[in-house]
Design a protein that fits this description.
CATH class of the largest domain in chain B: Alpha Beta
Largest sheet of chain A: 5 strands, parallel
Number of helices of chain B: 18
Largest sheet of chain B: 6 strands, antiparallel
Helix content of chain B: 40-55%
Largest interface: A-B, 22 and 24 residues
Distance between the termini of chain A: 10 Å
Strand content of chain A: 15-25%
CATH architecture of the largest domain in chain B: 2-Layer Sandwich
CATH superfamily of the largest domain in chain B: PAS domain
Distance between the termini of chain B: 49 Å
Radius of gyration of chain B: 65 Å
Strand order of the largest sheet of chain A: 2-1-3-4-5
Strand content of chain B: 15-25%
Oligomer: heterodimer
Number of strands of chain B: 22
CATH topology of the largest domain in chain B: Beta-Lactamase
Number of domains of chain A: 1
CATH superfamily of chain A: Response regulator
Chain lengths: 120, 663
């Protein structure tokens, strides 16, 4: 299982990476939407965990792009500002699940397994 | 234009003037009709009486004329010289006498006859001889028969006229006017003469030796009618016509008159109207009424003229021109009309003036109302009126003062609301920004703490410390979450709900906690509450928060009462939720700050100070309001008012605002 983590804040990326590594999941990461797209061009992932508020292009753009080019990949969006609006926009863009920052390792894994693994 | 006209019609000024005008018109018209007619009829009656009297005077003059002739003849006949001359046949003397007295009295004809019916002399006639029966003067015949003076009216036929004087016949022949149809014996009338005169027997030594007679032919005679005109009517002329007229008729024909025809000539030969002829000549009655004389109407009086044989041979007439009296009526009507007009003008001016006086304070109040509606709460209402309007002005003043007071209060209230909402907004913005930035490092702290805690080789002391870090980070997470909730103002998701049911649920949810604390928590829902459209989760969080606050403020043995009641506020139906506790109460000085964000009375770590601020925000967004009253050591009472669903027609509908938000 291979998961792509997209966030401009490295500490968040690192946190996610550590949680997933502990579960034996392989991770790859990107700091911007452009970078994520480049990675997705070359590699195949089971799932992607992406932040929404990022410089230049936001997470919604990335989710839409992913749904177009990698429809088989699950998407978990995470945000520090989870409002019903954000939630709806994300789900409409194609996200499979969402999680509000901050979270505990168990919370992240729960969301990941509940909404992502069922796709395998 | 039409509206303007309507406004005018409904204006007080117009109504007042109109009513005054109606009154003056009514009175004016009434007096015009009644007064005009009464005046006319009284004048008419008066005139009739006067005309009748005038007729009497005319008749008197007529009789006097006859008497005058008789008296002169009697005097002549009584002189001894005259008697001797007649007895001795002194024609010269007799003729001289005839000339003499005829000239003095103005006789047309005169003569002396002896007892053998022989003429001893006649006026202007030298013929002496036997007088035939046919031409014998009827006066003389009667004078001989009755041996006394006979005087009066008599008719002379063609023969006797010619006998007396052929000139008289010419004078008597009056051309018959072509305009009036003849009544009866028209032909004879033309050749007849109406005469007045007297015959006096001459006595010598107790024996009648003859008679002297004389008379005046009335046909064409002007002296009598002119005398009447002069004596009775003083020759008054009105509009070129004689006011008073008099006429002598032979039968129905005018033979002597001062009535003028169209050409300004005496209307001789014309006829009286058939009506008058019938009544006066045929029936011998008096006539006093309007009568048409030629083309004009006269108020007239007629009476029959009797001859010496008591036969109706003609009529005597006097009349007054009706035009004069009609004009009096016309003048009266014009005068009344003028008075009415003056009344109308006066009432118009009066109405205008009075309305001005009445309406001045009203207009002042009107302008003041306009000023008030434009936001000026201290308008000028004009000088105080002394009439009833003054009372209104006073009340109006009181009202404006009350409005001013209210405006001031509302301004203060809205200012405080504004300050509050500004506070909320700025705090919200700050919170949102901070929360977002804090969440990333918090994620790391939470993640790594939990990852370390997973390790089994940790010393108990380290594990304790790590758990403290974890729990305190959780605390930060909660604070940040409530900050976000506070700032988020997420969309309302209103659903129709039974308020009592929702409250009962919340109360039940907290009943365990209250039981543990030893506080009596009760709920008392009012019946008959309307339906509400509320965001279930948000509202529940509000009253749970409120009840929790109450629990925090109470000690074992205290009471918390939650109740509802239907309340209509600002014409809107709704209900109040009252949460009353018998706890410690709130100090008055901090009562104002209760709804400020981050204000808390709880110990550090026990409250974020956002609960009430968030609650107040939620209630406000439901268009409701929240207020608090409290007494130290006695308890606190929170009252939440929420508007009910507005019912349109026979189905429920949510306020449009909520519909839009929910869509």
């Amino acid at each position: 299982m291979k998961v792509l983590i997209v966030d401009d804040d490295t500490i968040v990326v690192e946190s996610c990476r550590r949680i997933l590594h502990a579960e034996g999941i392989v991770t790859q990461h990107a700091g911007t939407v452009e970078e994520a797209k480049a990675v997705l061009e070359t590699e195949v992932f089971s799932a992607m965990i992406t932040d929404i508020k990022m410089p230049k292009q936001d997470g919604f753009k990335l989710i839409s792009w992913v749904k177009k080019h990698r429809p088989e990949m699950s998407v978990l969006m995470m945000t520090g500002y989870l409002t019903p609006d954000t939630q709806n926009t994300g789900l409409n863009s194609g996200a499979d699940a969402f999680i509000a920052k901050p979270f505990t390792p168990d919370e992240l894994l729960e969301q990941l397994y509940n909404h992502i693994t069922c796709k395998f | 234009m039409k509206l303007k006209l309507l406004n005018l019609i409904y204006s007080t000024r117009f109504r007042l003037i109109a009513s005054l005008l109606v009154v003056s018109l009514l009175i004016g018209t009434l007096s015009l009709i009644v007064g005009g007619n009464m005046l006319y009829s009284s004048v008419l009656t008066e005139t009739r009486t006067r005309v009748r009297e005038d007729l009497n005077v005319a008749k008197l003059l007529y009789d006097e004329r006859i008497d005058a002739i008789r008296m002169v003849l009697e005097i002549i006949a009584d002189t001894s010289e005259f008697k001797q001359a007649l007895a001795s046949g002194n024609y010269l003397y007799l003729d001289k006498q005839i000339q003499n007295f005829s000239g003095r009295v103005g006789l047309n004809f005169a003569g002396i006859i002896n007892d053998n019916n022989e003429s001893y002399g006649r006026l202007n006639q030298q013929v002496v001889g036997q007088v035939t029966q046919a031409v014998m003067n009827p006066l003389v015949v009667r004078a001989f028969t009755e041996v006394r003076s006979i005087a009066g009216t008599f008719v002379m036929d063609e023969q006797s006229l010619r006998y007396e004087n052929p000139e008289l016949l010419i004078k008597a022949q009056i051309a018959t006017s072509e305009n009036l149809p003849a009544q009866k014996d028209l032909k004879s009338a033309v050749a007849q003469g109406l005469a007045v005169g007297a015959a006096v027997p001459v006595r010598l030594d107790g024996k009648v030796i003859g008679a002297v007679y004389g008379g005046v032919l009335l046909n064409g005679d002007t002296s009598f009618v002119d005398q009447v005109g002069e004596t009775v009517f003083r020759n008054e002329v009105y509009k070129g016509r004689n006011v008073g007229t008099s006429t002598i008729f032979l039968n129905a024909q005018r033979i002597s008159t001062n009535v003028m025809n169209r050409n300004g000539e005496r209307a001789l030969g014309t006829y009286a109207s058939s009506e008058v002829t019938r009544q006066v000549l045929d029936e011998g009655k008096l006539w006093t009424d309007r009568a048409q004389v030629l083309s004009d109407w006269y108020i007239s009086a007629y009476e029959p003229i009797m001859d010496i044989f008591d036969t109706r041979v003609g009529m005597l007439y006097v009349g007054t021109l009706e035009d004069k009296y009609l004009d009096v009526r016309k003048q009266a009507i014009v005068l009344f009309a003028l008075i009415t007009l003056a009344g109308i003008v006066f009432s118009f001016v009066l109405g205008w003036y009075v309305t001005g006086i009445i309406m001045k304070p009203v207009n002042g109040l009107l302008q003041a109302s306009v000023a008030i509606s434009n936001g000026n709460f201290s308008p000028d209402i004009g000088p105080p009126s002394k009439c009833d309007m003054g009372l209104l002005q006073e009340q109006f003043k009181i009202m404006t003062e009350a409005l001013q007071e209210r405006e001031k209060r509302q301004k203060e209230e809205s200012e405080s609301v504004l300050i509050q909402s500004e506070k909320h907004a700025s705090v919200g913005k700050l919170a949102a920004g901070v929360a977002h930035e804090i969440n990333n490092p918090l994620t790391a702290v939470l993640t790594f703490t939990h990852l370390i805690l997973r390790r089994q080789d940790l010393a108990a002391e380290v594990r304790d410390d790590l758990e403290t870090i974890a729990s305190q980070t959780e605390r930060v997470r909660k604070i940040v979450k409530s900050l976000l909730d506070f700032s988020r103002q997420s969309r309302l998701d209103p659903q129709p709900m039974d308020l009592n049911l929702e409250l009962a649920k919340s109360v039940k949810l907290l009943s365990n906690q209250s039981l543990i604390k030893g506080v009596e928590l009760s709920f008392n829902g009012a019946t008959g509450l309307p339906m509400f459209s509320l965001d279930r989760n948000l509202c529940q969080s509000v009253w749970i928060n409120m009840i929790m606050n109450a629990l925090d403020a109470t000690q074992p043995g205290d009471k918390i009462e939650v109740s509802t009641q239907q309340v209509i506020s600002d014409d809107k139906n709704g209900a109040e939720i009252i949460i009353r506790d018998t706890g410690s109460g709130i100090e008055p000085e901090i009562l104002d700050k209760l709804f400020d964000p981050f204000f808390t009375t709880k110990d550090v770590g026990k409250g974020t100070g956002l609960g009430l601020a968030v609650s107040a925000g939620i209630i406000e967004r439901h268009e409701g309001n929240i207020r608090v009253t409290s007494t130290l050591e006695e308890g606190t009472c929170f009252t939440i008012w929420l508007p009910a669903i507005r019912l349109l027609g026979d189905h429920c509908s949510y306020p449009t605002k909520y519909l839009r938000r929910g869509a």
